[in-house]
């Protein structure tokens, strides 16, 4: 009866509460949704493109406001009380999503301005300005959560979880930048090395967020994460050695190589991001071995 009574008390707290929209957090959410939708529509009206950076930008300006809207509706209906009891740490999830959205919108604002804004591209500048405004309001929410509300995350908004988010984000940047590898077997092996850790990262993040699911696993998740990190470091060491050698051998930087449409610069971006992720995975492994900064020692 005690458990049933707790469930009834929790469900009874889930009531419609539009006052959440009038709070500072609610105002930020409305600004995020509005600016993201306006930026998406402006970019779509400008015209489509097969470029992966444009596709990534459109995905970001659609995904972030949808997640913000879902979070707003859940909090408005007080369903977060139920989720907090049965599934996840809601405060950790929302702060982590704000941090992830900030990472995505800031990167999109920079890449979009780099590719589509120029001295004679007024419309490109308009979209870029809205993109930076969108990134700004998401950054404001992170600053509010971390410094004004002093929220401390249990995983996603804490260093171990956000570190995994950064690893997944850098992996995404690598995949959207891949080009010029299809006729070179060594570079195809690098792509396979990038692909192996990538789908496992979201599973690790989701399992750590969903507390009940984590307890049901038939194996030790922390030990699995440690093995995953060792394999990821080995794979990225391989890619960090092989990609630059086989991509840039007999392929010097062209004399005219503007960053907005130079294939060589995009290929260099893959090499750079490979080293960034190698550092992230290596530090992740070291922190896990030492059990510092909130990382669980295995």
Description:
The protein has 298 residues and is mainly alpha-helical. It is built from 12 helices and no strands. α5 runs antiparallel to α6, α5 packs parallel to α7 and α11 packs antiparallel against α12. It is flat and about 60 Å long. About 2% of the residues have low confidence.
Give the biggest beta sheet.
none
* Strand residue percentage: under 5%
Give the count of helical stretches: 12
State the order of secondary-structure elements, H for helix, E for strand: HHHHHHHHHHHH
Instruction: Look at the helices and sheets and give the structural class.
Output: mainly alpha
Gap between N and C termini = 38 Å
Poorly predicted regions are: 10-14
| Rg result | 21 Å
Mean pLDDT: 84
Give the fraction of residues assigned to helices.
over 70%
Number of strands: 0
Q: What global shape is seen?
A: flat
What can be said about this structure in brief?
The chain is an all-alpha fold and 298 residues long. Helices cover 74% and strands 0% of the residues.
Write the layout of secondary structure elements.
Blueprint: H1 2-12, H2 24-46, H3 52-76, H4 80-86, H5 90-116, H6 122-148, H7 159-177, H8 185-195, H9 200-209, H10 211-216, H11 221-248, H12 263-290
Helix pairs in contact: 2-3, 2-6, 3-5, 5-6, 5-7, 7-9, 7-12, 8-11, 11-12
List keywords for this structure.
0% strand; flat; mainly alpha; 12 helices; 298 residues; single chain
């Amino acid at each position: 009866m005690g458990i049933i009574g707790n469930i009834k008390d929790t469900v009874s707290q889930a009531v419609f509460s539009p006052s959440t929209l009038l709070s500072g957090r609610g105002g930020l959410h409305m600004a995020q949704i509005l600016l993201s939708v306006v930026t998406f529509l402006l970019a779509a009206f400008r015209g489509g493109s097969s470029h992966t950076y444009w596709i990534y930008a459109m995905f970001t300006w659609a995904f972030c406001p949808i997640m913000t809207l879902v979070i707003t509706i859940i909090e408005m209906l007080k369903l977060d009380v139920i989720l907090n009891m049965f599934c996840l740490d809601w405060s950790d999830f929302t702060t982590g999503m704000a941090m992830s959205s900030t990472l995505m919108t800031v990167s999109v604002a920079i890449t979009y301005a780099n590719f589509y804004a120029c001295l004679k591209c007024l419309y490109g500048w308009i979209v870029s300005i809205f993109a930076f405004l969108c990134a700004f309001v998401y950054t404001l929410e992170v600053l509010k959560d971390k410094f004004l509300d002093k929220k401390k995350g249990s995983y996603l908004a804490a260093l171990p979880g956000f570190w995994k988010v950064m690893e997944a984000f850098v992996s995404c940047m690598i995949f959207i930048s891949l080009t010029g590898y299809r006729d070179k077997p060594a570079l195809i092996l690098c792509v396979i090395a990038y692909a192996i850790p990538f789908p496992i990262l979201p599973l690790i993040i989701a399992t750590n967020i969903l507390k009940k699911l984590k307890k049901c696993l038939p194996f030790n998740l922390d030990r699995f994460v440690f093995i995953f990190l060792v394999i990821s470091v080995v794979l990225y060491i391989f890619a960090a050695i092989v990609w630059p050698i086989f991509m840039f051998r007999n392929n010097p930087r062209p004399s005219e190589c503007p960053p907005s449409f130079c294939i060589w610069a995009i290929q260099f971006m893959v090499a750079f991001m490979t080293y960034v992720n190698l550092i992230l995975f290596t530090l992740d492994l070291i922190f896990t071995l030492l059990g510092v900064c909130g990382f669980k020692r295995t």
